[in-house]
Amino acid sequence: MLALAVSGVLVVGACGGGGEEAGGSGDAAAAGNSTGPITYVQGKDNSGIVQPAIDKWNAEHPDQKVTLKEQTDQADQQHDDLVQNFQAENADYDVVSVDNIWTSEFAAKGWLQPLTGEYELDQSALLEPTVNAETYNDTLYAAPTTSDGGLLYYRKDLVPTPPTSWEEMMGMCDIATQNGMDCYAGQYAQYEGLTVNVAEAINTAGGSILSEDGKTATLDTPEAKAGLDALVKGFQDGSIPKQATTYQEEQGRQSFQDGKLLFLRNWPYVYSLAKTDGSSTVKDTFGVAPLPGSGDGQPGASSLGGHAAGISVYSDHKKTAFEFLKFLQSEEIQRDWLTQGSAAPVLEALYDDPALVEQFPYLPQLKTSISNAVPRPVTPFYPAVTKAIQDNAFSALSGSKPTDTALADMQAAVQNAIGGK
Asked: From the record, what ranges are coiled-coil (predicted)?
């Protein structure tokens, strides 16, 4: 599973389901426009930051109390629990926490209240990519509550200035060889993290996976080929170690902390662990930078992580649910979640707060990462799309398919996926 530093360590993954026409209108969306007690549903709160926030709300709203329902810490089980509740048209779940790759699926099925009209939220203070990730067919369906972006961890004792392009980074691999370590790794096992890393490579090279309307696969381009080729060549020449095809987040983190990697692509949660984990050999010798770009002076295009809160169309108390969404996006809660649980905020101003930057030195780099991030493919058929990407990308990286063949097969499989085949 893909581990993100959203709530302690939240896990995100490719899950079942799919959808077709955009919904959220009709009788269900129009009903339940009242106040009263509500239930907020999310994955296990490993960091312990959610209940204190709810306690604050309940103290201020004694007649509109929120009850937290925790799911498991497994993303596929969280997803399936929500699907079952929605399919039953159950009013028990009022506000639901959704991974940003689920929003379009749930919106297309008509399960999330569109955040328009009397439910319109002012999102102008948020980092724009976080809003884009929750937007389907030009309509916002969920309120971003936490975010995440990829970062480049590097050995600052060996590389005083971090690379700004992939080519520059690959040119530094001799330093790794001279110091008896591997050069670079990301997450290349066959799971959701592979989709994240491949999407970053393709987007950074100027390519894309889907058209803007989400109806056409766009992997048959020179830019997409250049992105996947960069990773394939890294494995072929040893700049990326062969064993990285088994790496999820934790394997890469451990390798970097053990002093075995010069560069590592990973999430912000690694920062505090690399500093405080007693086994870390690099606690005083690593730095953090935005992901390397394509050489055009721009940083790399991180895949966007994070969660949002959506209102179930079947809720009986949508007015309270809407006010609770605004509460979760408030500066007070966003600041609490960062300082108490290292959850990356969605409010842009917090990344420039001097006191917070002193406490979390990686915030400026994370802001750059998220500001330049690209959501994973926004489609109600995401589970099938990510499988198509993983299957064919892994074949290319492991050497069982040439890049051209893998991309052609990926193009066909993604097109079939978004066609519901």
From this structure: none
User: CA 385 from chain center: how many Å?
Assistant: 16
Q: Report CA Rg, the chain.
A: 21
Pick out the chain residues at pLDDT < 50. Answer: 1-25
Q: Do domains 2-148+305-371 and 151-302+381-418 have the same CATH topology?
A: yes
Q: At what angle do helices 382-397 and 403-418 cross, to 10 degrees?
A: 170
At the top level of CATH, the class of 151-302+381-418 is alpha beta
Which pLDDT value is given to residue 179?
A: 98
Tokens of 377: 């493919």
CA–CA dist 186, 264 (Å, integer): 6
The CATH number corresponding to 2-148+305-371 among 3.40.190.10, 1.10.10.10, 3.30.70.3040, 3.10.20.10 equals: 3.40.190.10
CA–CA gap between residue 30 and residue 318 (Å, rounded): 9
pLDDT of residue 14: 34
The CA–CA distances, whole Å, from 250 to 163, 247, 254, 380, 411 equal 23, 7, 6, 29, 30
| Cα 28 to Cα 165: distance, rounded to the nearest angstrom | 49
| The residue to which tokens 């390798």 are assigned | 255
